[in-house]
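REVIEWER CHECKLIST
Item 1: Sequence provided? yes
Item 2: Single chain? yes
Item 3: Sequence as submitted:
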Amino acid sequence: MQFDTFAFGAYPTQLQSALSNNYTWVDTVSWTHGPHQLRFGGEIDRVAMRRSLPIADNGLIFFVSGATGPYTDFQSFLVGSPLLGEGGGGLGNHDYRIPGFAWFGQDDYRVSKTLTLNLGFRNEFLGAPYDTLCHTGNTDPTLAITTGQPYVYPKCISKFGSPVLRDAESCGP
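Item 4: Structure as written out by the authors:
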């Protein structure tokens, strides 16, 4: 419970931590042969975001002076008139990963002194975030139509031992 001047319970910003690591590996190989300048390359991205926000597990109720009548924050508490309340639930710790990679090939072909053709292709993939602690899932609306169950759970969900979640896992793609 949060008041203007004091609080009961955990403060909203206490016990929070966050750590992010981003790594990118990029390389390109070039080879010139006659009128051709060939280049090939790729990129691998690794993003890791570790979050611990345990306050998200708790609900919060805020009492503010004058917000809900002529009361002080404590009087608002006594009459049961908060400014706002926030429900909590779920898990506060996550270890997200976001995979990504790209590759390309190209040829700068010099047709003449005044004309060079740049021919090539590139493919990029930016994956959906996933939680290595298995604390999040995802949804696929097309599954709701075909199976009646739109949730996609990571394979590690079975470690929690819930029969409902084990059955739901089989509904994924």
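Item 5: Key structural point noted by reviewer: The two ends are 43 Å apart (CA to CA).
Item 6: Recommendation: ____
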